[in-house]
């Protein structure tokens, strides 16, 4: 617990800032409280019941900070970074039986990776004795790389002509994505553009959907506007939209990822099976109703537009309502579970918080080592069976710090002489009594609101210490 919390705090100290909340976000804050998402917790990185302001990775000048900033703490002379280097597979070789020292030890070990440069030339990066390959390619990338490397369901790999190194039936299984549903409006008054800053957490134990909001500019199709003497008929009209959304925690519905071909540059296939579990659909129904309650608050009245003709307005008060973009809530949203459930199914979208595919206890052990292999780990969101907090970014970065610190505790002297290859390609539990259980249950879930990613990076890393 101490190492988990100190790792969170280090990430928060180096990468996060308190945002200035005004305009749309301030209105959402007031509306959440009016809708009884209480108490008001102010600015905090703790995952607690109520309404709060979360940390942001944008500083006061608007500069975005990411996990790449943490490279400043590495020793430059011991770190080699290859950009535009797409890893195509991990090199896995058999271990000499005489060196296995017992029948229970794995029969194969990772010895390096094959990667492709921007000119599509292939290269090998090989480990020194005692080193490791660490996959941090995200929920879609890490299972894909294991499958391409021969670690996965044997029958599936054989059918694609991929030599089987380890028959691991759970690689690519137990894939999850948190369903997102919401309402978007064109506000009647000018508003600022904002990322998610204010969060409503009706229940911190994951039994109720989280509520978030954002505002942004979107282009409207040219077909929806008339052409004029100074306006091209193909020019889009840009309008400001505001969205209030709910995100189902967990979830329980699970899907899978599989290879469409052995070609490493071909995107894998994935199906998340949203709402295949009735519990998730029931949570969405409750969450959508909370979105409606937020919109019905008096705070939101200022964003309503007049509805009806000018003559109706002269005879009395014109009716005011929201200019909704996309699907509207059913009229009987407060009483009809079936109609709200249908709305959930029709409008479900991703919040890009997918996880799973290399779940702890099924594909990796309590120390994130790929079971059945040596010198190979996965350290990213693919090891989760639930998404932590309202945004998993803080936990993913904490894991890197945690794993490094845990290895230091086991013996830095041995680590100092070894070499690690860290693969980050797209970023990104059945917990046992280990770090994963602490990650899952510690109250110190940081909510860093908005995601970052590092694409196509291969790092050759000698262990470094602060």
Automatic annotation (TrEMBL):
Keyword Methyltransferase among UniProt keywords: no
Short name of one Pfam family: GMC_oxred_N
Alphabetic keyword roster: Disulfide bond, FAD, Flavoprotein, Signal
InterPro entries: FAD/NAD-bd_sf (IPR036188), GMC_Oxidoreductase-Related (IPR051871), GMC_OxRdtase (IPR012132), GMC_OxRdtase_N (IPR000172), GMC_OxRtase_C (IPR007867)
Coiled-coil region list: none
Cofactor(s) demanded: FAD
Segments forming domain Glucose-methanol-choline oxidoreductase N-terminal: 138-152
Binding-site list for FAD: 87, 352-353, 381, 392-393
Entry keyword Flavoprotein: yes
S-S bridge residues: 284-344
GO molecular-function term, one example from the UniProt record: flavin adenine dinucleotide binding
Homology family: Belongs to the GMC oxidoreductase family.
Protein name per its UniProtKB record: Glucose-methanol-choline oxidoreductase N-terminal domain-containing protein
Organism in which the protein naturally occurs: Aegilops tauschii subsp. strangulata
Lineage, uppermost ranks: Eukaryota, Viridiplantae, Streptophyta, Embryophyta, Tracheophyta
């Amino acid at each position: 617990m101490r190492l988990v919390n100190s790792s969170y705090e280090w990430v928060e100290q180096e990468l996060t800032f308190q945002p200035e909340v005004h305009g749309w976000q301030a209105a959402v804050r007031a509306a959440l409280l009016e809708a009884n998402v209480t108490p008001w917790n102010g600015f905090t990185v703790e995952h607690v019941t109520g309404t709060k302001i979360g940390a942001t990775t944008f500083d006061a000048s608007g500069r975005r900070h990411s996990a790449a900033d943490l490279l400043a703490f590495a020793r430059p002379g011991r770190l080699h970074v290859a950009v535009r280097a797409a890893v195509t597979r991990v090199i896995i070789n058999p271990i000499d039986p005489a060196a296995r020292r017992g029948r229970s030890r794995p029969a194969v070990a990772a010895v390096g990776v094959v990667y492709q440069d921007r000119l599509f030339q292939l290269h090998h990066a090989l480990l020194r004795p005692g080193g490791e390959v660490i996959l941090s390619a995200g929920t879609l990338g890490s299972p894909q790389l294991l499958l391409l490397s021969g670690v996965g369901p044997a029958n599936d790999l054989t059918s694609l002509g991929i030599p089987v190194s380890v028959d691991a039936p759970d690689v690519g299984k137990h894939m999850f994505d948190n369903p997102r549903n919401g309402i978007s409006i064109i506000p009647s008054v000018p508003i600022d553009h904002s990322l998610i800053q204010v969060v409503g957490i009706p229940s911190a134990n994951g039994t109720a959907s989280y509520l978030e909001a954002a505002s942004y500019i979107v282009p409207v199709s040219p077909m929806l506007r008339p052409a004029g003497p100074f306006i091209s008929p193909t020019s889009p009209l840009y309008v400001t939209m505001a969205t209030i959304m709910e995100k189902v925690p967990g979830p329980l519905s699970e899907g899978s990822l599989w290879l469409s071909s052995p070609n490493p540059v071909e995107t894998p296939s994935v199906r998340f099976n949203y709402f295949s579990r009735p519990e998730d659909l029931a949570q969405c129904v409750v969450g959508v109703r909370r979105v409606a309650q937020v919109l019905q608050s008096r705070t939101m009245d200022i964003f309503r537009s007049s509805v009806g003709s000018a003559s109706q307005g002269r005879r009395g008060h014109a009716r005011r309502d929201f200019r909704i973009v996309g699907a509207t809530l059913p009229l009987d949203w407060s009483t009809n579970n079936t109609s709200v459930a249908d709305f959930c199914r029709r409008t479900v979208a991703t919040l890009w918080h997918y996880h799973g595919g290399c779940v702890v206890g099924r594909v990796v052990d309590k120390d994130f080592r790929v079971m059945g292999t040596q010198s190979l780990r996965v350290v990213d969101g693919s090891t989760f069976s639930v998404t932590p907090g309202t945004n998993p970014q803080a936990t993913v970065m904490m894991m890197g710090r945690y794993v490094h610190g845990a290895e230091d505790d086991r013996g830095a002297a041995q680590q100092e002489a070894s070499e690690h290859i860290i693969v980050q390609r797209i970023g990104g539990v059945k917990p046992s009594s280990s770090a994963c259980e602490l990650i899952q249950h510690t109250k110190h879930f940081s909510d860093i609101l908005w995601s970052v990613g590092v694409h196509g990076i291969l790092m050759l890393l000698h262990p470094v210490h602060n």
